[in-house]
């Protein structure tokens, strides 16, 4: 009889474990999400947050049978600091670089970004090697991966004009206050759509790098939460492709 009871208990435990494996861990809903305004990944339109990464996250929540969580839109540097220092926090969309790799736990990649230097065609820039760009001024978004990418290739900091938004970077370039601005190709295409920019007036003068973009979780996040999100991410592949096509 005791053996039968023990077997029954073990059977129920296995069934419960199998059921829970497809659901979110109980603590998963205590996570705080931060993002910045950086289209087309994440941005505010008509008072609502949207974007490629935002829609992907919402699809993951739905797959996990979770209610949508609140997403806080903050300056990048603040969101980075909050996520680095506080448990149960996530920042997106973050490029996964070697220097950041061991500072966070990662879910993705959501998409890849190619970062480029863009100038007005009227400038007539023709660079044969990276070092030739160092003599010109570039508008960069403070703390953004595009700025970090420039720093990593040795671009002189004295020639970098640090601003807070992509729109400011574009306007400074348009007004000839700087020679170029740095941005991802995704970002430039979306910015062009939002501001009615004639792309024929601008050109890519140098390609800096291509980097994968992820949801970055605080390093102390339990591995089962990371695995739940990564499993959800992997299992909604068809939805992710549809979301990418909607924004690209």
Automatic annotation (TrEMBL):
Pfam families: SBP_bac_3. Transmembrane segments: none annotated. The keyword Cell membrane does not apply. InterPro entries: Solute-binding_3/MltF_N (IPR001638). This is ABC transporter substrate-binding protein. Residues 35-238 form the Solute-binding protein family 3/N-terminal domain. It comes from Colwellia echini. Residues 1-21 form the signal peptide. Keywords: Signal. The keyword Lipid biosynthesis does not apply.
